[in-house]
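Pipeline run #58 for the internal structure catalog. This entry was flagged by the ingest filter as a single-chain record with no existing model, so it goes straight to prediction. Upstream metadata was stripped on purpose; only the residue string is passed forward. Reviewer on rotation: M.T. Logging verbosity set to normal.
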Amino acid sequence: MDIRIYIGVSTKSPKKSQRKICYLLSCEKDGKEETRGGEPEEVTETYHGATVIAVSRALKRITGPCRVTIYAEDSWTMNMITTQMPAWAKNGFRDKKGKPMHLQQEWMQIWLTSKEHDLNTETGTHKFTEWMKERMEG
């Protein structure tokens, strides 16, 4: 099964602040697109941190192995998911000083889930970008 995860974050400000996140899971069922999620929630985090939290929460909802594509505007986080997680996992998701990295539990969740699925990322706006922005503003 192919599942698409669409991520939305209300503001791209790099500073830690209160913002809204939103995720939507989508798949084809009987020739029609079905979606789940889409309810915005507030978090106090950086832009990248908010994206990580949204991805982690969306991935928790998937049961059974499948092909997953994550769509998000946050190119840094998408790049870290595809290129850095194996190295971070080897270090126990700790920084060079041995301290737990920021959002260690969420990164570990993403890593463990990625082992179950064929995980891919796509950076940029997506077909639900505007819809999510409207929901997060409302």
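catalog note: The two ends are 33 Å apart (CA to CA).
catalog note: The longest helix spans residues 47-60.
status: ready for reviewer M.T.
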